[in-house]
Amino acid sequence: MRLTLAVVGVGLLGGSIALAARQRRVAGRIVGCDRSEGVLERAAACQMLDMATTDLALAVAEADLVVLCLPVDAIVEGAFRAAAHCRPGALITDVGSTKGGLVRALDGRLPAGVAFVGSHPLAGSEKSGPEHARADLFENRLVVVTPGAKTPPADVARVMTFWHALGASVVPMPAEEHDRALAMTSHLPHVVASALAGVLPPEWQFLTATGFRDTTRVAAGGLEMWRAIFLANREPLLHVLGRFRARLEEYTAALAAGDAEALARLWLEGKQSRDALG
Amino acid sequence: MRLTLAVVGVGLLGGSIALAARQRRVAGRIVGCDRSEGVLERAAACQMLDMATTDLALAVAEADLVVLCLPVDAIVEGAFRAAAHCRPGALITDVGSTKGGLVRALDGRLPAGVAFVGSHPLAGSEKSGPEHARADLFENRLVVVTPGAKTPPADVARVMTFWHALGASVVPMPAEEHDRALAMTSHLPHVVASALAGVLPPEWQFLTATGFRDTTRVAAGGLEMWRAIFLANREPLLHVLGRFRARLEEYTAALAAGDAEALARLWLEGKQSRDALG
Predict the structure, then answer these.
(1) Touching check for B262 and chain A: CB below 8 Å?
(2) Which of A165, A115, A5 has the alpha carbon at shortest distance from A69?
(3) Does the beta carbon of A253 lie under 8 angstroms from any beta carbon of chain B?
(4) Which residues of A fall within a CB distance of 8 Å from B190?
(5) Chain B contact for A127 (CB, 8 A cutoff)
(6) Is the dihedral of CA A192, A197, A200, A201 positive or negative?
């Protein structure tokens, strides 16, 4: 496959898609689009694009595949705007961390001949910007693809083939199931890390070691991105937050009672779960 | 300084002390003591000891410095047992993660001529055992030393000099202040990581990425070690758990209300705190 690829939003993920598609010869031509001239200049400096433009219509006009690397609250609008300028047969996907709202808004609703299939690569970094992009970002990572009820199977296959070609494993999953799972596996850890970092008094910063730093690493992520994800996935996130808070209450009760047996059960269940992740 | 050094408990920390003391020529002779023959054999295989024994009296008889690398609930008894066999002028320290109870039990209470000064190196790993020991474990790490009211300044200086010689920065601090701070910077992250790992349903393990893994890494630590720390530092830990749970309630309320402004404030406070750690 030698696609004409349009990457809309050339940050860490968009830049990594461009680098990986070039290095693996997945794309014959790569067009980068961003509203920021500065981002496009930094991306161009990394030699990842054949063309860079702030003009979305121009960017997608010849594309076989358009990848929207936008905040989750900007993807629906971005998809409609891109689709209006795509040629028939073009396929649009995204890298958003929540999927249910997108599939409800877009599945079967774009102009005839243009299709949308949602994607979520479980890859990223607390860093941002094209200068942190890496050609190997998707290698051995998982990409979840979330077809809707009206998505033609051939389009699902095209999107899965694309991510495979960038080195990822790909699994299809209903969007609502994806959102429930990711609330637990990704969005909850971000809330937890942020809350933990938020209660650290500055005068004790020098007494933090790798434990505190690792547990809070993802709290350094960008505000706009994470707030949009939290708001887009409110109900599933509130559900898992409730489960987590109940678990903390169990820990608190065991500690308050000095209950060594209960502490052992809680710790070992957590350890067993963490050990299983390898 | 070319000490005769006795390391009691030859796990990850004890083994790293032995390796560092040898490599940096801090000790002329290093004796390792452990109740487990198997641990001593694994330590001996790493060439970190001049003598290995299960006999505490033999291990400490000639020592200038005894470092107790025992679980926090075994240090007081270990110090009294070791002190009974030490020669006059010997100094005992430890590597325990909680300090108030030790200082209250030991400061000025050992046989004449033998002193105790508590230490806590902020270094470690979720791994354990002498085979994971590293000579550079203390380089550029912080060691907190917690003198009691009756500790002679010269003994504090000797312990600080020892840790400096292993490559660490050293700061003296009252034991109670240490325990309040470490409840926040170390013990709370362990409870949080454990609770988060504990609520992950096994069927969603394959949907975890680096965010979940980093946030829960320390949940893989050993049960005996962490349960003893939690119980030894119950009151300060319950206090910071309360602050963390209040913060989660704020997050929950902001999410439930869809309050973008409150979410921004919570996220940015956490991000600012985390960014300050570098």
Answers:
(1) no
(2) A5
(3) no
(4) 211
(5) no
(6) negative
Structure tokens at A45: 């400096």
Return the H-helix or E-strand segment holding B43. helix B37-45
Is B58's Cβ below 8 Å from some Cβ in A?
no
Q: Could you count the other beta carbons within 10 Å of the beta carbon of residue A235? A: 12
pTM: 0.92
Q: Which two tokens stand for residue B116?
A: 């105790």
pLDDT tens for each residue of chain A, 278 residues long: 689 999 999 999 999 999 999 999 999 999 999 999 999 999 999 999 999 999 999 999 999 999 999 999 999 999 999 999 999 999 999 999 999 999 999 999 999 999 999 999 999 776 789 999 999 999 999 999 999 999 999 999 999 999 999 999 999 999 999 999 999 999 999 999 999 999 999 999 999 999 999 999 999 999 999 999 999 999 999 999 999 999 999 999 999 999 999 999 999 999 999 999 98
Tokens of B247: 């913060």
Residue B239 burial (CB count, 10 A): 13
Q: Which of residues 162-181 of A touch B (CB under 8 A)?
A: 171, 181
Structure tokens at A125: 């970094």
Q: How far is CA A193 from the centre of its chain?
A: 18
Residue from B117, B130, B136 nearest B67 by CA:
B117
